[in-house]
Specification:
- The chain is of the alpha+beta class.
- The chain has 2 domains: about 1-120 and about 225-355, no CATH class; about 120-220, Roll (Pdz3 Domain).
- The protein contains 9 helices and 8 strands.
- It has helices at about 1-30, 90-120, 140-145, 165-175, 225-255, 265-280, 280-300, 305-320, 325-355, and strands at about 35-50, 55-70, 120-135, 150-155, 160-165, 180-190, 190-195, 210-220.
- Helix 2 packs antiparallel against helix 7 and helix 5 packs across helix 7 (about 280-300).
- The chain is elongated and about 95 Å long.
């Protein structure tokens, strides 16, 4: 449990640092003063000022923030000192870069991690039939089939060779010769071998005639030049699936059907981290990539208090040339934050209900 909590904390720290570092460096690039770089949400637990920026730890461990000079000023006309370094004083395109920098960094992190995994080897569909395992004391186990064997053909009792291109081929052809000795042609460690096996007509429950588990997945490693393109393709697949799931999950939560919601809060994500940890480093890296992409997608939504909500106001200003009154914009962001915290509470309750229900 402790290791899972520490792992979750490290992953969260990475995601927060990457996201907020995007805002931080983009603001510096645009000449905007950064007043605070915070981990977690206020109230503040600890802070230290380095240069002109306070680096703080806050009590609510649900993210982080970068507080920019003049970002939420209700009365910008009262800002006299270093006015040129205030967020509101910058042009719309400059503010847009700062607002999208966090999302961009999360997207790039997810892309980088996925691309890295593609260089280490990923399972992809193929036209091969690979042995994944055998049931104890089954005909396949007694015949000596081992994990990694590729089944390429089945030779009937009368000598007829039937090619095996899929698991369906193997099942249908095996069922033709129940309780009869057949020969399987295999590729093992690059060499072709043959083994004899007698498929059962009455196998134990949960086992097939031969008691063999097969798959069409093979491991493929991509080169450093191939991996980024394949990684980007996979990132967009994740975005597509996530975008479809976010809307339906929020709708279920709002209609009190939280038990059906697929979205997870801190507790749910912590559980996923624990499960991924048991599968090894690659699973943790993949989960971190998915979480980073999810964070980018959620933050870009045009909802008050999120980066996308703030960006929406800037875009409207850039198109119309008119800026909303700072007071109203501040109020909308505050309302948005309250709604987001409410959704977080609902998601957390949903996680607890799912856990207690088993």
């Amino acid at each position: 449990m402790i290791i899972t909590i520490l792992t979750f904390a490290i992953i969260l720290l990475i995601l927060v640092v990457i996201h907020e570092a995007g805002h931080f460096f983009a603001a510096k690039l645009m000449g905007i003063k950064v007043e605070e770089f915070g981990f977690g949400l206020p109230p503040r637990a600890w802070g230290k000022k380095v240069g002109e920026t306070i680096y703080s730890l806050n009590w609510l461990p649900i993210g982080g923030f970068v507080r920019l000079y003049g970002e939420d000023t209700v009365h910008p006309e009262n800002v006299k000192k270093e006015r040129s370094r205030a967020f509101f004083a910058k042009k719309p395109w400059q503010r847009s870069i700062v607002l999208t920098a966090g999302v961009t960094m999360n997207f790039l992190l997810g892309w980088f991690l996925i691309s890295y995994l593609f260089t280490q080897g990923v399972l992809i569909p193929s036209d091969k039939v690979i042995v994944e395992g055998t049931a104890e004391n089954s005909p396949a186990a007694l015949a000596g089939l081992t994990v990694g064997d590729e089944i390429i053909s089945l030779i009937s009792p009368k000598g007829e060779k039937l090619m095996i291109d899929s698991s369906e081929d193997l099942i249908s052809n095996t069922n033709k010769f129940l309780d009869q000795e057949i020969t399987l042609e295999l590729v093992r460690d690059g060499s072709r071998i043959e083994v004899s096996v007698t498929p059962r007509s009455t196998p134990p429950k949960g086992e097939g005639a031969m008691g063999v588990i097969v798959s069409n997945l093979v491991e493929k490693k991509y080169s450093l030049t191939e991996a980024p393109a394949k990684g980007l393709e996979h990132v967009f697949e994740i975005i597509k699936l996530t975008a479809g799931g976010i809307g339906s999950s929020i709708a279920k939560l709002l209609t009190l059907r939280g038990g059906d919601a697929e979205i997870a809060g801190p507790l749910g994500i912590g559980k996923l981290v624990g499960e991924a940890r048991r599968f090894g480093l690659s699973a943790l890296v993949e989960l971190t990539a998915i979480l980073s992409i999810n964070l980018a997608l959620i933050n870009v939504l045009p909802f008050p208090a999120l980066d996308g909500g703030r960006l929406a106001f800037v875009i409207v200003e850039g198109v119309t040339g008119k800026k909303m009154k700072p007071q109203w914009e501040t109020y909308l962001h505050q309302i948005g934050m309250i709604i987001l915290l409410g959704l977080l509470l609902m998601v957390t309750i949903n996680d607890i209900l799912r856990f207690t229900a088993g």
